[in-house]
Each structure stands twice: as structure tokens, then as C-alpha cells.
Amino acid sequence: MRVLHLGFEDPRMPGAGGGSVRTHEINRRLAAKGFRITVLTTRYPGWQERVEDGVHYVPIGFGTGSNSLTRLVAYVARLPFEVRKRRSAADLVVEDFFAPFSTMAAPLWTKRPTVGVVQWLHAEDKARQYKLPLHWMERFGVRKHRRLISVSQGIADRLTGMNPGIHVDVIGNGVDPEGWTPQPHLGKDVLFIGRLEYGHKGLDLLVEAWARCCSRIDGNLLIAGTGTDEARLRAAIRAAGLSERVKMLGWLSGAEKFQALSNARLVVVPSRHETFGLVAIDALATGTPVITFNIPCLREIVPPGAGWMVEAFDVDALADEVARRYVQPGLEAAGALGRKFAAAYNWDALADLQAASYQESLTALSGTRTLLQASYLERS
Question: Residue 144 — pLDDT band, cuts 50, 70, 90?
């Protein structure tokens, strides 16, 4: 099958999120099965067109893509034109949803059977942030799709709420094989890994909670990641008087990331919204327990005993839970349970599911397209 994937983020871009990781992990396995895949992404400083693990990456836009706004605007402006150039060589178009409005309603203009992959569905939150009707665009785009792949059941339920007639396959994310390499052990520090988005990732709540509990904890809070709100986060840490108890690690990936997860005593995922929660699964795979807020999607991947959930956005509860679990006996048993749970999130098996979903979607959407064309010819 020839697939044109509208992937938005390149996994090589500094600060790229978990969505681009999923795109590449699935696509490289499909390429090994004989799929011919081209991924259109934004440009970024140092971008290059390339074939990586059998997947053809084509950054599109204007100039070097020096900042997030110009990357977004250039991608949106160029994408329909670039798809029009390439669609004759594609059997299926795959649209990754992306910030800030999720979907460009690709089925309206690709002129090819089109499937959406939903790893991001937070336009309502962005609408409040930017005072723009981005959630209306999201809802409109979801209603134009007929087949979607969601990374969690929680997101699938939201999608069917917007479009009751839609077909959604739930196919989660997997754990990189490198996640199993470090040997589990009890570390000293508490770790956050992720994109530095102050509100979305709950970094404001994390800083406040840490200020309330760090006096009861021997280790430091380590924050690994980059993002648009890094300066704001550093300022908040200084204002809270936490500069000696919070260490910024910068962006970590690959073996370095998994070693950091393994070295931690606890991993905290304080997000206000998640579509899956890849960091939580990665942490469990390394044998490190996870503490999160009790929100949809994370409920699906943090099993009792391998991690703990507190009332959503309750800073006192988060602080108390971190302090309580930090000194809890038997954390090794929690880590072992987490590794057993995470073993089910296997990229090879997930790629097989996605290949089957693509084939079913191509059959269903091509059949619909053929019937509509026949009906039109008959009326003519």
C-alpha cells in the first residue's frame, strides 16, 4: 500500500513530542512489511528531506522554520498544494491531528481515501488560551472524517461524541525496545519528562506541589524537556525559591531518556490533558512507579499498584502523594508490576493492528467513493 502521511512533526526536530515518535515507530515497521510511506512534516532549523528506516520524510513550508508559529503557518499553507502534487502516487492518505485545531478536515480536499490518526485532541483548551474558536474547527474536521484511529478509548469516546457515525479503531502507543535495557533499581530523585508547556502539561501545578513537599524528600525534582514555556518555568522555579531543589536536564531521548526514567525513584505526570501518556508507559517499562492526576486516558495506562492517581489538579493531594510514596516500602514490587503491564504495549503488535486498520479503511472508503461516483454517473 502507498501511504501519504500528513505527519506535522518530524521526530528529529528538537522538542518533538510523542506523536512523532509513534508516527515513526509504526511507519518504519509498515515499511518493513512493504508499505511505501511518505511523511510530510513541518520544516525546522537543520531540516532535510531523507529516507529513514524505509520512511520518506519531506519537510514542507517556507524558509528554515525558525519558530513554532512560522512552522505552523507555512505547513498549513503548503499542505494542500503538496498533497495535490503527490496524491496520484498514494492509495491512502493519513492525517495526524495536531495543535492547535487538531484537523484540517483533510477528507474534503485530498481526493483520496483518508484516515485520521488522533494523538492530540485539545482544541478546546487552546481556544481558551488564545481566545479563538479553535474547538469549532476541531469539531468541523472530526465530522468530515469517516474513519479514525485513536490512541486511547477515552479519546475514542470523545470523537464519537462529536461524530456519532464515525468508525474509530483504538490502537495505543508502544514502548521503545530501549526501554527494557536499564536494570530497575530504586533511585533518589523525582522526575518529569515532557514538552515544557506550562498549562497543558501541568508544570505550574508540579512546581506548586513540589514547593509543598520537597522538605519531606531527600532527592531533587528533575525536569527533562524543552518547549515554548521554558523561560516561564524557570522564572516560576526561581520565584518559588526552588532553584536548589529543581534541576533542568534539557531534552532527553533514546537510551539517555530511558536511563533517566530508570534512575528516578518516582515519575510524575501532572498533565491537565493527555491523549495517551507515553511517558507513563515508558516509566513503567523501566520499573519506575508513576504518580498522575486522575484524568481520562491516563486511567487506562496506570494500573493500581504500579502507580497512583490523585484527584485531578489537587495540588495538596499531589504533594502528599509524592511525599508518601517516596518513602513507601516495597517500591520494587510496584516497579515489577509496572514492567509486566507495559510489556503489552509492543510496537510490532501495534503496527500489525494499524496495517489491518489501514486495509479495512481503504476497502471501506474506496467502496463508498465508488458508489458515490456510480450514483453521480447514473444521475447524469
Answer: very high
Q: Which domain holds residue 58?
A: 2-174+347-379
Residue 299, Cβ neighbours under 10 Å: how many?
16
The CATH number given to whatever domain includes residue 357 is 3.40.50.2000
Query: Do 46 and 189 sit in the same domain of this protein?
Result: no
Instruction: Indicate whether 303 and 351 sit together in one domain.
Output: no
Domain count of the fold of the chain: 2
Angle between helices 203-213 and 315-326 (to 10 degrees): 60
pLDDT at position 368 is 53
Residue 31 has pLDDT above 60, yes or no: yes
Looking at the structure, do residues 35 and 150 belong to the same domain, yes or no?
yes
- pTM here is 0.83
Residue with cell 523561560: 231
pLDDT digits (tens, 9 = 90+) for 195-215: 899 998 999 999 999 999 999
The Cα–Cα gap between 116 and 25 comes to: 17
Specify the long-range contacts of residues 251-254, CB closer than 8 Å, at least 24 apart. Answer: 251/14, 251/15, 251/224, 251/225, 251/226, 252/193, 252/224, 252/225, 254/176, 254/178
Say whether both 135 and 213 belong to one domain.
no
Contact between 315 and 293 (Cβ < 8 Å): no
Q: Which one-letter DSSP state was computed for residue 88?
A: G
Average confidence (pLDDT) over 60-67 = 92
Same domain, yes or no, for 164 and 197? no
Question: Residues 87, 159: one domain?
Answer: yes
Cα 241 from chain centre = 32
